[in-house]
Amino acid sequence: MDAQLAASFLKLIIFLPVVILLAYISLKLGGQKMLNGGSRIIKIIERVPITSKSYLCVAVINGKPYIVSSSEEKVEILMELPMETMEKYKREGSFKDNFLENLNLFINRKERP
């Protein structure tokens, strides 16, 4: 019985670092892709809480910006944002600071023919 316990302990000492090393390598190589989102079609730019269970989001879907409402019951695209808004966001680097300004700009703009 003591020989089996020693053999099991030796196997544990040898293979546990190997498993930890493989897990580390997997997270190091694949983790960056998970954090960056890879080449996802849908990217959430900004999420603003409306209530505790509903949000207003700015999402880019296949290169086009949209305002999306999200709640427990449903997710709904409310409107498409003009590309100027996203270009302004890319220049300034912060959508959060100018969210209401951009939303008012979009709502008050004249309809395009």
From TrEMBL:
Which Pfam families does the record cross-reference, listed alphabetically? FliO
InterPro entries reported for this sequence:
Flagellar_biosynth_FliO (IPR022781)
Q: Name one GO biological process term.
A: bacterial-type flagellum organization
Which residue windows are transmembrane per the record?
Answer: 6-27
What keyword terms does UniProt attach to this protein?
Answer: Cell membrane, Membrane, Transmembrane, Transmembrane helix
GO annotations of cellular component type: membrane
Question: Its domain of life?
Answer: Bacteria
What is its subcellular localisation? Cell membrane
Name of this chain's protein: Flagellar protein
